[in-house]
Each structure stands twice: as structure tokens, then as C-alpha cells.
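Predict the 3D structure for this chain.
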Amino acid sequence: MKRVVATGTFDLLHPGHIYYLEESRKLGDELWVIVARDANVRHKPRPIISEDQRLKIMQSLRVADHVVLGDREDMFRPIEEIRPAVITFGFNQHFDEQKIRGGLEERGLAGIDLVRIGPSEEYPLCSSRRIIKEILGRYNCEERSG
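Done. Predicted structure below.
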């Protein structure tokens, strides 16, 4: 069985997330999704939706066979447990693939394919940041308080 791992924050679920997961699913027989912990999201504002709620939402999607929360201290721990053949990244995820490869090799997990999934060109709002910006602009939330 060829396992694929897709990772992400998955805040404000949108068509870009679905595209990423569907493309990841095509690369193997079983799709595992690792949902980032709130505390581990450092490269952008903290998620709006809590990690428990994001986990529940992701578990409801038929595209994923298994959905788990990431480890609080060690991002490689779930990878050691799952033992995937492939790890996918979204086009805009801020992972240094060389550092990931090095970390995998240190743990005896060399040989896992790392695949970056390209963007979905089909939908304009394929980013949580774009969705938030659209909401703020549409409802003039920047000018109003409350």
C-alpha cells in the first residue's frame, strides 16, 4: 500500500485545499492528512478556526483516509509513525524541501518522495488570506469596529 501524507493548516477550508488533497490522493493508495497545531503555525497569523475544529472538518472529507493532528514538538514524529512513500506540499506552503529531506534522512526515512502540488487556477479564492481580505473589503470591516 502506497501511503501519501499531505500537511497543512487548513484554516477556512476552500477549493484550493480540496484541489491539493485530490492531487495528493492521486499519488498513492491511502491519503493521510496532518493538520497543523495552532501553536506550530508561525509563518502567518494564527488560525481563525481552532485545531480541534479544523481536525473535525478535515475528518469529514471523503478524500482523506486518515486525519491526525501534528505533533506539538516534533514535526517528523507523525511521519515516523505513518511511514509514507510520498509527502506533498501545497504550492504556497513555506517548507524548505532540502531541510525536510535532511530531517527525514536523520531519522532513517530517506527515500520518501517530496512533491509540491501546483496551484488550482480554477477558483479565485483559493487562499485563506484572500478570503479574509475579500470579507474585510466587502463588509468594510476595516472601517467599522464591532
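The longest helix spans residues 15-25.
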